[in-house]
Amino acid sequence: MKVTSSVMIYALFIMVIVTILIGVVISTAYYNYLQKLTFQIEKQLQHNVHSGIAILLSNKMVDYAHPRLISLYKEDKDSTYLSKELFGMFDLIRSRSAWKKFSYEKVAFAGGFFARKKTFPALYLTNHYSPLCLVGRSKITGDCYLPQKGVQRGYIDGRSFEGDRFVKGKTEFSEPSLPELKGQYRKNLMEEVKKRYLQPEKYQALNMEDVPDEGLVHSFCVHTEVVYDADAILLRNIKLKNNIVVISEKEVLISKTADLMNVVIYAPNIFIESGFRGAIQCFAADTLFVGSNVSLDFPSAVCLMNHGLSHISQTLKIASGTNISGVVCIDLANNSGAAQPDVYIEKNVQVTGAFYSNVSVQFFGKVQGSLYTNGFYVKRLSGNYINHLLDVEINKDELPSQFVGPDLFVSNTENKIMKWLN
Amino acid sequence: MAQLKRKRKITASTLQETIIALSIIVFVFGIALLVLNNLMRVENIHVQFKGNLLVEKYFDHVTDTTEQHIYENDGFVVERTFYPHPDDSSLMIMVVKVFDSNKKKIAQQKEILFFRSIDSRQ
Lengths: 422, 122
Hints:
The complex is a heterodimer. Chain A has helices at residues 7-58, 189-197, and strands spanning 2-4, 68-71, 79-87, 90-99, 102-111, 113-114, 123-125, 132-135, 139-141, 144-146, 151-153, 167-168, 171-173, 216-217, 225-229, 233-235, 239-248, 251-254, 259-272, 277-290, 295-306, 315-318, 323-332, 342-345, 350-357, 362-363, 366-373, 377-380, 383-386, 388-390, 393-395, 404-405, 416-420. Chain A is mainly beta. By secondary structure, chain B is α+β, with helices and mostly antiparallel strands. The longest helix of chain B has 27 residues, at 15-41. Chain B is rod-shaped. Chains A and B meet through strand 1, helix 1 and strand 33 of A and helix 1, strand 1, helix 2, helix 3 and strand 5 of B.
């Protein structure tokens, strides 16, 4: 039988098969190459970002409010955007690297206060010519800066010092004034806050009524969300999380049902209900009450700060059973006309981190970390006992080795990561 | 008779068509050979990938930043070097290079370290 057929058809058929095979081989190779390239670029961006974080931690090349675009090695694909700003009391550092459609970013809180740093003492009590008097089960562990009159046994309500050593650590003489806080903190609180956050061209402030019922969960990779009300703000049954600033020109009441994390609150008066738990930074200009059994998780800050004029007696009270991991800071201007500020820390209050007060405090709690103050006093019916500590424990050695808090004093020391935020 | 019936003969329509068909087949196979040959010559992607993974591995666990380190790993040579940063004395630049068995560089990565806080990487 004779089959007549066109050879051309066979040839074209073979060509199509071979072309498909070549296509498969080439596209596989191409996609492998693309995958390798993507991996390389992503890894390079990650290394750039970590390099940026290292530069930010070294704290020499980037200033507050002056972000920089740095070419890390003066090569291709190594441009990295670095910025450092204050979020409440903490340094918010940001490192971002991008190339074409690829980008990578890390945001973190950084701080220069940590356990291994010897420059932070257990206690810094300014030298005002009256000695430190320990009463009851008071215990101080760690190096101290004390008045020239030193430390001695005190007596309150018929009780004397019950320990065996006054200070377990080295002691040195303190200066007549405390080390000054960073300049950024020492301002008229509410004016400064309004100047910074109530700028319509930069932040679109939400009113409390505009906040959705389910709350706000925000990100540190975008601009700060501002919630502002000229009237009082009640935070109850609400969730606010990450990069949110709440400002009231009157007061903020925080209920124990509020779910707050990485939120900064500014108001003349702030009240935290007993039993609340969260990670917040509170800045009050006049009054700050923290109820009992409140747990302010790391990193939190409780601050009574004002360098503007105030005609009332500024008050900070922290009730029994409260734990604060972060910073407690009282920094008030010396207003000769105003009444004496009232700072009262009850028994069983524990502060892990730093406690700073430029006014005299009634302190009955415990500090795991450093305590800086202009003086202590204990008020009794029989009178005021100056620089007396009754059943107080201050222990720098108990500060967890991994703890990092903000350096309140100097801006350009080495830093560590406090907390990654993305 | 049946044997004759099963016998088939393929004949081309024309000589011209046959020549063209042969040329196409030769051309297509030639191209295929060329592509495969080139792909085989290109560095093995898997080797490069492994080199990149090795680079990442040697970025971790940095404890000694004082000198150059050379490691051998699965037929690859990994070189880790530290240089001081030109603008900040507290920073170091770490360079990790991976070479194959023919001493050809197949991967490289750089990172700046804050040497007091090497543990700062996540």
